[in-house]
Amino acid sequence: MKKISLKMKLTLLYTLLMSGVVVIILILLFSLSSRQILSSVQSRLRNRVYSASDDIEYDNGRLDFDSDLDDTEWGIYLSVYQEDGTYLYGRTPTGFSNTMAFSDNALRTFRQGNTTYYVLDLYTYVKDYGNVYIRGVASGTDAEEDMIIIRNAALILMPLMVLLTAALSYFMTRYTLRPVSRITETVQQICLEKDLSKRVHLGEGKDEIYQLARTFDDMLDQVETGMKREKQFTSDVSHELRTPVSAMMLQCEELLDDPDLDEKTRSGITFLDQKVRYLARMISQLLMLSRADQGRQKVQMESVDFSEMTDMVVQEAQDMAQERQIRIQADIQPGIHITGDETLLIRMWMNLLENAVRYGKDGGHVHVGLSEKDGFVIGTVEDDGIGIAPEDLPRIWERFYQADTSRSRSDSSGLGLSMVRWIINAHHGTIQAESAPGKGSRFTFKLPVGK
Ligand code: ADP
Description:
By secondary structure, the chain is α+β, with helices and mostly antiparallel strands.
């Protein structure tokens, strides 16, 4: 039952309820009409038997019977008997064996074969002759046939009514639940497209679902305003911090240029310089991501020699890798050109390579690959370092997420991969990570050549 949709559940419920009501109504109707038929047979029988006593006369020493007695009007047969049961006149239905004892004015039923007979005897006095019995017999067949017709009609009508109820309740439920589907679709779109500007916009209906949709839209307004404010705040803060941090960086550089610095001061300023550079990097990444969120980050598309760019980035990363005796091997297909933003693409390569070195093992290897196939450029960065735990893998793209904080270096911020993914998406590409803890990680991106 859990997996059935609300629409189906309501349809089933309505159908069951309606079927129950229909069954009850039909049973009532059935029993009422059977009673009605029975009572009409009984009253007709009484009428005819009582009026038959006027059709018998004694004249000139013999009994005279009116021809009315022969009529089988209303399906009722009349016959007349002497007090001792001797037959005098009249008819009984064929197949009715006239063996019942007489009983005055009592309506009795008599079942013979498949037929039920209704029998009424009247003990009456014929002037100058004496008492006789008038017997009226009605065959139940007619009444039973009526009943069978009603039963058959009910049996055909029942499933039809159930089907009709099911169809009607399905369409009614679908119509009633349409606003709920709209709400679900809107939420799904918001989740999928990460676009908080979407609204349900159900209109001016008064029922609870419309109220829910309006409340939902109001809530989205508030969330969107909050998010905008937060993005603006991040952007403003990063922007404001950039100038003093650049000044600090410049100041450190100038101080370090002084050859007369004593060792202790030099090492102190070098430490400060490293921290300020880390700050500057983080601020620039934050600024870029917040601009990207606001749709303000410019992407300058131009034709780029991607092979040459990759080669250059690999050369630049060699120094950093050298410090940990990591060898970077590059397998770059020459002459690959794509349309993209050069600065952003360099940033993307650098972030991937820095991570491969940062989380690689001393004396290990990093493999960089670039090739073109079927209109797509496939790039890979593979290391044999610490790897990423499966539970962390889906979350490494989140901002400020660091899989293993104990092993993350002080110069890492958790923003690098968020930026990589944004850059890849801005170039209409995809990126994925595979990793085995203790064995290494591999990042593979796919970019369309023409875009
Ligand atoms: P960080 O500045 O911490 O490197 P990133 O966004 O670049 O931030 O990466 C997020 C997290 O993903 C890192 O903290 C690290 O735990 C994990 N990670 C990224 N690249 C690798 C890699 N090549 N090997 C192992 N872990 C990695």
